[in-house]
């Protein structure tokens, strides 16, 4: 009897151990009853029927990048991790639309949203995602030329994420991000690109230098034009003011000569004559020769007119001093 009770106690303990399941946070366990899916165990303490209910074993093969290269490992587990996973798909050769072979590798971030479909809809989820990412990457880059591929990483990442998310939705997987790590063209293409970039930089430098010279010449021409205009404007205003002053002077002379026999023209001729004689005398350096115009009589008449003007403009109308008649011209 004691052995029976001990046996029953051992059986109860065994059943409790086999039937008690503790699931950690962010993990779930799929339970099959007699070979068919029964339910999903959530995080915490769960109880199942031993020998009838069994966890679904999970065997996933994953390719892991290491310092020695790519290594394929098989992961055995009874739970499904619901956390976001990072998958580093290996470097692969891709041909662009302009027939350039490039090496591309990248990262893929995915998360299991439906554990049941992730286990039952696909045999090996990590390997399926890897192959799908590789084919999608080849299709997208195959439609683009090399220059566009190198400058359109964001577009490639966005298109890959959209395609992979749609394709993995039936597997209960959400693709959050796709990032291309490296795009490596062949060495010959890299050398050609460096030469092209060097030539482009030199071309831009020449263009910038030419534009600078052009701008400098334009500014210099504009400055000279503005200076010429300013000088011309100053001369114009000076001449206008001089002409206005001369006109006012002539008006004063005309008013002063209204009651005399001499007109303003004779006065101006006589004044110019005296100024010319003064210049000749100043520049003659002691020369006693005096130059008179051929129409001496007209000039003397003008001098007489100056005499009358001076007499008329004196105090109380008193005639001024009588100018001495110039000596006769030497023969």
Comma- or semicolon-separated keywords:
alpha+beta; 331 residues; 3-stranded antiparallel beta sheet; rod-shaped; 52% helix; 4 domains; Tetrahydropterin Synthase, Chain A; 8 helices; 4-stranded antiparallel beta sheet
How is this structure best described in words?
The chain contains 8 helices and 11 strands. With 331 residues, the chain is an alpha+beta fold. The protein has 4 domains: 1-56, no CATH class; 58-185, Band 7 domain (Tetrahydropterin Synthase, Chain A, 2-Layer Sandwich); 187-256; 258-331, no CATH class. Strand 6 (58-66) and strand 7 form a beta hairpin.
Per CATH, the class of the largest domain reads Alpha Beta
Helix content estimate: 40-55%
| Strand content bin | 15-25%
Intertermini distance: 183 Å
CATH topology of the largest domain: Tetrahydropterin Synthase, Chain A
Biggest sheet details:
4 strands, antiparallel
Domain count: 4
Annotated CATH homologous superfamily of the largest domain: Band 7 domain
Record field, number of beta strands:
11
Secondary-structure element string: HEEEEEEEEEEHHHHEHHH
Output the number of helix runs: 8
Secondary structure elements and their pairing?
Elements: H1 2-19, E1 20-23, E2 27-33, E3 36-41, E4 44-47, E5 53-55, E6 58-66, E7 69-77, E8 79-81, E9 85-95, E10 101-112, H2 115-120, H3 125-142, H4 146-151, H5 153-168, E11 173-184, H6 187-256, H7 264-283, H8 296-312
Antiparallel strand pairs: 1-4, 2-3, 2-5, 2-8, 6-7, 9-10, 10-11
